[in-house]
Amino acid sequence: ALSRGFSRTFIDNLYSAVELAASTLLIILPIPNNRRKQNHRHIKTHFNLSAKLGNVKSEHRDSLNKLTTLRIQARYVKGSFSIQPKEAGVHLKTAKELLKRAEELLS
């Protein structure tokens, strides 16, 4: 999507992938007061806590937090939206790492 100029779609889809991977990790990892029913706020809060406890990489936490902000701008704010290719590449790389980690824990 990004290579075709659809930066809003790219961010929205990347956010969804990262959030699903984070949700998977939250189900697998032992996290205090975690519940199975999750919403955006719950996932972000507990993923941040998980990073603070050292259960997930800080880069993964930072990417989820930044993508949360970018997704809101891309999806709900009227007007132009863009992301620098370098920043998009960093988030894509981090997302792939996070998805790989979730897949490893599921194996």
Element layout with pairings:
Blueprint: H1 7-28, H2 40-52, H3 58-76, H4 85-106
How would you portray this structure in words?
By secondary structure, the protein is mainly alpha-helical. Helix content is 71%, strand content 0%. The chain contains 4 helices and no strands. The chain starts with 6 loop residues before the first helix and ends with a helix. 23% of the residues are buried.
List the main descriptive attributes of the protein structure presented here.
single chain, 107 residues, mainly alpha, 4 helices, 71% helix
Kindly summarize this structure in a few lines.
This protein is an all-alpha fold. 71% of the residues lie in helices and 0% in strands. The chain contains 4 helices and no strands.
